[in-house]
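Write out the 3D structure for:
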Amino acid sequence: MLGAIRKSVRSWVGMAILGLALLALVVTLFYGQTAAPVTGARGREVARVGKLGIGETDLVEAVNRLLDRERETQPSLTMPAFVRMGGVDLALEQLLLARALGQFAEGAGIPVGRRLVDGEIASIPALQVAGKFDEAAFRRFLAQQRLSEAALREDIATAIAQGLLLLPARLGTTVPQMLAEPYATLLLEQRRGTILAVPAALMPQPAEPDEAALRAFWQRNRAAWTVPERRAWREAVIDRAQVAREAAPSEAEIAAYWRANPAEFGGVERRELRQVVLPSEKEAVAFAERVRQGEGFAAAAAAAGFSDVDTRLGTDTEAGFASQIGADVAKAAFALREGAVSAPVKGPIGWHVVLAERVLPAQVRPLAEVREAIAAKLAAERAEKLLSERVAAVEDRIAAGEPLGEIARTLGLSLVEVPPTTADGHVLGEGNVLVPRAAPHVARAFAADPADGATVVADGQGGFLVIEVTDVLPPAPIPFEAVRDRVRASFLADARLRAAQAFAEEMAKAGGDLAAAAKARGLPPPQQLVVRRLELTRAAQAGEEIPLPVRLLLNLPAGRAKVAPAPGGQGFYVVRTEETRRGTAAEAAPLVAPMRQSIAEAAPLELAETFARAVQRAEGATRLPAAVEAVKARLAGAAEAEQAP
C-alpha cells in the first residue's frame, strides 16, 4: 500500500526507477551477480571504492548480465535502448554498492567458510539433476555465465558476508502510529478536474512539404528509417520429449526395482511406536518396570513430565526408525511383540524406553498395481541422466571443434537455419518493411556472443538448445528513395501532432474555458472527473493501469493545468485540477492500522539500503565520469555513429 501511495504522491517514473534499483540491489547483494573477483580493476578504471578499482571490463560484463535479465521479460530490448534507459548507471551503482559492502565486511572480519559456499552452490536448482548436485551441470553453468569456479565462489562468499552485514540493519523496525496517520489521511484526498483531449487527427491539414523538407525530416528521424541489428543463426534442439522416449524402462527393470525396494510397496513390516528418553539408566529401568506392572504408558510418561505428543514416534519401518533415533533403539523396538515395552537402551542423549503400540505386518502391493508408478519414476530419473549426458556430449564435440551440422547429424538433432532477424522477431520483407516471423529463441540468439561459436543454453521448457550465431548485420539506414512515401506520411502526421501540442500548451497556459475552446476548434467536449486517491491506489495494487491524465490530476495543485501526451502519438491531453479536498483524521482512522503495517513491511528494505549507501560513502566510492561516458559510447553510441552520413 505504501508503494502505491508514493506512486501517486511522487514521480511515477522516478519511483519505477527506484523500484528497479532496489530490486537490482537485492539481486546483486544476495545472489552474487558480479562476475570477476574484486581484487582489482580489469581494463581502464571507471570507478573506485577505497582501494578497489572497477574497470571497463567489470562494468561491461555487469551491463551485459543486467541486460540478459531484462530480456527475460523484454526480449526485444537492445543494448543501445538499454543504455539510454540508464542500464550502465544502474550496473555501476550495483558494482559500487556490492564492492563497498564486500570491503567493509572484509574489514569487519566476517568469516565465510568453504563448506558454507559449497552448500550454497549445491542448493542452486540449475545445478541439480534429479534433486542432486550435478558436476556436469555446474561446469555447463560456469561456461554459459562465462565464470570461473574461483570467481563464482568469491561472488557467493561476498554475497553471504554482505547478507550478514545487512540483516541486522533490517531487524527491529518499529513504526509509530503518528507516522502512518498522514499517509492514511492522504488516501482519502478527493480531486475534481477537467481533461480535454486534443487529437492530432482533428488539427488542420498541414501544407504539402517540398523535397528538401522531406529529406531534412528523414535525416532528423534517421532512427525511424533504420533497420535495427539483425542476427542469423542456426539452432539445434536437445528435446526433453525425445530423451524421455528413449528413457522408457523395460519390464525387467521395472520388476527389478519392485523387488529391490520392498519398503516402498508395503513389503516390510511397519510399527507404530512411542518412547520416553530419561537422563539415567536407573530412572529408565524404574519407568519400564511401572509399565510392565500394569500402569499405562501414557500415564507413566505424564508422571515423568512427557506430554502425549512428546512420546509419539509415528509409524515407520525399522530402517526408517534407525535413521531417526539410532540403530540400537530401532532394533530393540522391532524385537518387541505388540503392546510390549523394551528394556532401557542407551542412546546419544539418554536412555530410551520404547512401546510397540501397534505392529503392521508386511502387505506387499502387487507389481501390476504399482507398475505405472515405477515406470514413470524410472523414466524421469533416466531422462534427467540421458539429458545431462546428451548435453555433455554436445559440449565435448563443440570443444573439440566439430561443426554444429555434423554434431546434429551424428546425435540425431534437428537443425534449423534462421534468417537475419531483429531482436523483436521481425525479418526484412519487400519494400524495406519489417514483418513478424516466428522465432521463439530470438532472445537467446541476441544474448549469445558470436565470438563463442556454438553454445548450449537452456530453452526455458526443461530442455536445451544449441545456438550458433552465423551472421550479425549492424543497424543500417534505409535510403530516402525507398521510403519517400512513408516519410511524407510521417511528416504530415508529425506536423499535426506538433499543432495539437501547441494548441494544448496554449490552453494550459491561458487558463480559460476549456469547453468553449474545444467547441471553437471542433474538438470533443472536455470531461469532468472526480477521483479519490484511495480507489486509485487499490486499482494500482490490483495491477490496473492508471491513465497518465488521471495521475497528473493527482499531482497538480488546484487551479493548475498541464499537458500530457496521448498514447501512440495520437495527440495530447490538457489536464486541470479544479478543486482538492483532504480527508480528515476521523475519516482515516480505519486505514491507520493497515497503513502502519504497510510501512513496517517496506521499512526493513529501506533501512538496509540506507545502511548500504552509508557504507558506500564511508568506503569512499568515486566515479570517473569521462570513463563511464566512454563505456556508454562504446555500448550504444558506436552503432548510431555508423548510421551518420
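The radius of gyration is 34 Å.
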